[in-house]
Amino acid sequence: MEEELIKDAIAIVEKAQSEGIILRILGALGIYLQAKKAGCEEFMKSLKRLGESERFLTDIDLIGYKKQMKKIVEFFEKTGFIVDRMVLAYFGDKRIIVHHPTKKYHIDVFLSKLEFSHIIDFGNEPGKGRLELDYPSCATTDLVLEKLQIHEINEKDLKDLITLFYCFQLSETGEETGGKINCKYIATILSDDWGFWYDAMENLKKTISLAEYLMRSGILSEDQFNIVKNKTTRLIEIIENTPKTSKWLKRAKIGTKKPWYNKVEELIR
After folding, report:
1. What CATH code would you report for 2-257?
2. pLDDT digits (tens, 9 = 90+) for 174-200
3. CA-based, 20 to 30 A from 176: which of 26, 88, 217, 221?
4. With the CA atoms of 260, 56, 208 and 131 taken in that order, what torsion angle do they form, in degrees rounded to the nearest 10?
């Protein structure tokens, strides 16, 4: 089933691309594809994020541009997928849910933004956003942000962050070629949003803590732990040293006295 999901997700992105529609893969599958390009499949297996011990894929998460919404709906319908019309009616400008013809799995297609605990903006139209930075998944920088925005992060998500920090180099200049993690971009996003900054910093600290636990458990070597720790620590330093906006400073005064994250509600499928 997982092999079929991977094959189908790549085929969908490729076919859409051939028709001028920009779609990119998010989530666990996006991280897997990036890790595979970096030769890190065995590392993911060592964390039990791949292999028979755990089913790590159950559906497909994609992101496209809001301005291509109609084209995206038409694309899936003509290829035999079933577009959830109720979700389309209520959330069509933000999110589309598509079902496999035999209901084997569903596809979440987000439009321009991920809106969960915190918002990640990819841009509204082709040529003016971030989706073209990589293929077939979105850029590793955005995959890092996707995990950092989670308010109630779990062990699987932290293992995904450990994978990203182990497999990819940090970039402090804004460069993102070769899967580099753009620290400057991440720090700029967080410098304008105190709530996102707060959860991201907590999650980075939890990443180091879990990596240390995995080292003490014999799952990570000391060298592997040090690579993850050093990169995560450096990203924390860059975020801390980036000047904050007046919006961030104003919200920081309130702190955790008021909710700083959005409540995530699962759509009925």
Report:
1. 3.30.460.40
2. 999 999 999 999 999 999 999 999 999
3. 221
4. -60
